[in-house]
């Protein structure tokens, strides 16, 4: 317990790094997947290969990706950019499927009504298609956010891992407290992020009176 | 990296690539086997009786949030030993939830009318489970095992942190020695193994799924 009191600064620093390393990729991934998913629904022959390629990327082990990326990007091995890029890749590879499924879940008559009222394709995407796709996109967003938060720690193996660095620290000193603090904070962060996303989804879809769908299985 | 991978010297012996591949596969399948042995029956039971569904769903979600590295370090410090046991504990803790959750989801998702029909034909609870529910749930069960495998293969890399072998050895040693070709080779081999095992499960899924389900 005294360790926690004496190291609040360190813990806070690692927590901040953890949040930054986990959340930036989610935002970047969303920004990339939405247009990509939109293109894939317009040119439907693109959808299947994109989803399959995403599945392939997602099956790459995170530690492998963290290490191979610097060689490809030309960044330093000990650069947080590698973690951000790797997690962005995971985010896109998982989210692309949800964006495509979500955009496809828009009922054809709704789409036709929007066209009839005079919505252009971009206006329709923003004002009609995307709002309707929100529940499906958010299911993926929740999975990816929680998975990212847990994956950041692995970066500690190569020296940048937010709370993961508390794990390696505790391990090197054969000292349980930092490890427990890291695990608890990482779990709490994941739960909090999930709660924020659920709340955001409620706010964004006021017309959905029915309760949130049952959690999806991996 | 190609130089490292194509040098036959690196492939042979106790610390050669083949030996590391076998070690890695051993950790993976030991953890996967144990996860199936624990997760599958619990998932079947919860799905069949519909009792404890809350546990199955929430465990599945919570597991995604578990940091594997922290779990390993925790297991090392709690069992007070460095070696196979803590690695196994950490990997099994990652493997059980996806298997349990998807088995539960598969079994409980079977159409009640189908179960009623089976019961009407005089099947016992056990027969309904083995002849109706499990075959129908098979695609989901396999996909649960598949995601458990992927997690375990990639996480087994960190076994090298607690002085075990496996392909993580190249990654961790390479990092320490700043020997990047060795590091990249290790990472690439883990990725390849994950892809191959994933393809293997896709194939198993295709073979074990009852032809009746493919008519859909």
Automatic annotation (TrEMBL), chain A:
Q: Where are the transmembrane segments?
A: 20-38, 50-73, 79-100, 121-141, 147-167, 179-200
Q: Which residues form the ABC transmembrane type-1 domain?
A: 15-202
- One Pfam family hit: BPD_transp_1
On whether Transport is a keyword of this UniProt record, the answer is yes
Q: Does the keyword Transport apply?
A: yes
Key words, A-Z:
Membrane, Transmembrane, Transmembrane helix, Transport
Question: Where does the record say this protein resides?
Answer: Cell membrane; Membrane
Q: What is its main location?
A: membrane
Please, which domain of life does this record's source organism belong to? Bacteria
**Membrane topology reported for the UniProt record:** Multi-pass membrane protein
Known InterPro entries for this protein?
ABC_transp_perm/SBD, MetI-like, MetI-like_sf
Q: Which family does it belong to?
A: Belongs to the binding-protein-dependent transport system permease family.
Matching entries from PANTHER family are given as: GLYCINE BETAINE/L-PROLINE TRANSPORT SYSTEM PERMEASE PROTEIN PROW, OSMOPROTECTANT IMPORT PERMEASE PROTEIN OSMW
Please give the name of this protein: Osmoprotectant transport system permease protein
UniProtKB/TrEMBL annotation, chain B:
List the SUPFAM superfamilies: MetI-like (SSF161098)
Q: Where in the cell is it found?
A: Cell membrane; Membrane
Which CDD domains would you find in this protein's record? Answer: TM_PBP2
Q: Which UniProt keywords apply?
A: Membrane, Transmembrane, Transmembrane helix, Transport
What kind of membrane protein is this, topologically?
Answer: Multi-pass membrane protein
Span-the-membrane segments of this chain are 25-44, 56-78, 84-107, 152-172, 184-207
- Domain (ABC transmembrane type-1) spans 21-201
* Family per record: Belongs to the binding-protein-dependent transport system permease family.
Write down what this protein is called: Osmoprotectant transport system permease protein
Species name? Kribbella aluminosa
């Amino acid at each position: 317990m005294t360790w926690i009191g004496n190291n609040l600064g360190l813990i806070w620093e690692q927590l901040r790094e953890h949040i930054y390393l986990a959340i930036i990729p989610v935002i970047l991934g969303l920004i990339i997947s939405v247009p990509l998913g939109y293109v894939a629904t317009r040119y439907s022959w693109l959808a299947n290969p994109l989803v399959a390629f995403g599945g392939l990327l997602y099956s790459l082990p995170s530690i492998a990706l963290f290490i191979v990326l610097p060689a490809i990007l030309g960044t330093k091995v000990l650069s947080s950019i590698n973690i951000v890029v790797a997690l962005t890749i995971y985010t896109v590879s998982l989210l692309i499927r949800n964006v495509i499924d979500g955009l496809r879940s828009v009922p054809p008559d709704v789409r036709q009504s929007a066209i009839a009222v005079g919505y252009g394709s971009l206006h329709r995407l923003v004002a009609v298609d995307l709002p309707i796709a929100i529940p499906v996109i958010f299911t993926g967003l929740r999975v990816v956010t929680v998975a990212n938060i847990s994956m950041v720690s692995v970066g500690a193996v190569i020296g940048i891992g937010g709370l993961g660095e508390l794990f390696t620290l505790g391990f090197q000193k054969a000292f349980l407290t930092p490890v427990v603090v890291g695990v608890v904070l990482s779990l709490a962060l994941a739960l909090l992020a999930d709660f924020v996303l659920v709340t955001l989804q409620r706010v964004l879809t006021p017309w959905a009176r029915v309760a949130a769908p049952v959690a999806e299985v991996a | 990296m190609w130089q490292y991978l194509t040098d036959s010297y690196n492939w042979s012996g106790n610390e050669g690539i083949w030996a590391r591949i076998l070690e890695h596969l051993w950790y993976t399948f030991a953890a996967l086997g144990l996860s199936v042995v624990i997760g599958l029956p619990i998932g079947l039971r919860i799905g069949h009786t519909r009792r404890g569904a809350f546990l199955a769903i929430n465990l599945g979600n919570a597991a995604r949030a578990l940091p594997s590295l922290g779990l390993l370090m925790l297991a090392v410090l709690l069992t007070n030993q460095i070696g196979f046991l803590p690695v196994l504990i950490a990997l099994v803790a990652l493997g059980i939830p996806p298997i349990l959750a998807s088995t539960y989801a598969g079994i409980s998702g079977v159409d009640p009318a189908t179960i009623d029909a089976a019961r009407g034909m005089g099947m016992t609870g056990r027969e309904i489970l083995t002849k109706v529910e499990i075959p129908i749930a098979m695609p989901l069960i396999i996909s649960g095992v598949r995601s458990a495998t992927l997690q375990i293969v990639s996480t087994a890399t960190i076994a090298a942190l607690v002085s075990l072998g496996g392909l993580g050895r190249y990654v961790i040693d390479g990092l320490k020695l700043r020997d990047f070709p060795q590091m990249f080779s290790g990472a690439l081999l883990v990725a390849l193994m994950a892809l191959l095992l994933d393809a293997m499960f896709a194939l198993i899924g295709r073979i074990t799924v009852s032809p009746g389900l493919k008519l859909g």
